[in-house]
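Morning, I've got a small favour to ask if you have a moment. Here's the protein in full, and shout if anything looks odd to you:
***
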Amino acid sequence: MSTADQSEPEERPDPFSRRREVAATSARSLLMTVLGEVVLPAGRPVWTQTVVDVLGLVGVEEKSARQALARTAADGMLTSERVGRRVRWDLSPWGHGLLTEGAARIYAHGRARPAWDGRWLVVVASVPEQQRARRHRLRTRLAWAGLGSPAAGMWVSTDTGRLAEVREVLAEIDPADAHVITGEYEGGLSSTELAARAWDLGDLAARYDDFVARFAELSPATDAEVLAAQVRLVDAWRRFPFLDPGLPDDLLPDAWVGHRAAEVFHGRHAEWAPGAMRAAGALGLECPSPTGSRSSSR
């Protein structure tokens, strides 16, 4: 038995880049979803062919599936091990941490939030224009933390509880100049107007409408179809924590479609879990049960 090179790149790409999170579904995107939805909870390696078979259920060709595995491993998220003529893949410690963080955010998104106290978290930071990669990372990481930008060099959030996360981002990116403030907004705009400037709520509502139209009435018949639907459901939903800042109802339009979308996601995810688990087991891939137990795999 030989072990493939498991070294991680010195500078890892940001797996939560805005381009990747909001882009159209791809083999890489679907692989990330399978890793987070099934492989992460199982806690053990998975064979190449099993991943190829699962991705095949959602229309990914074998060549594309294998390329997605190789590229994800090159990013440092996966390690490979050859056993005879077969290869199995496991999450690296870094990949495990990233997917754990992402899964927590994905499955918590859309749940009830506490009442807003009217206080804002405000970040003012600057990175020199010539340091484009650092500027991009700052924007990306603050957006993933739920902050919006109403003006150049300024980011805001209604969730002051994200202060610690913001401090971590600033410590990592180390912008040339940064200030963090929490408190009530006393500017010339209303809080609703400030939110509308910081986030494109019209575009977000359209995305939620599309999600509801796609999944609310979907009724897969076989277990394999259920697993495919579950993967597509999570793959579509996992973009929303990046796009949706989780604003309090006071700052949202009336009859906010995001609430309906959350009902669809959490309801369908729970309803489809048993069938998805059976189909995953039949393909040799462990899938978490609705009660959190794990099925065996060959």
User: Anything to note?
Assistant: The chain is about 50% helix and 15% strand. The CA atoms of residues 109 and 149 lie 21 Å apart. The radius of gyration is 21 Å.
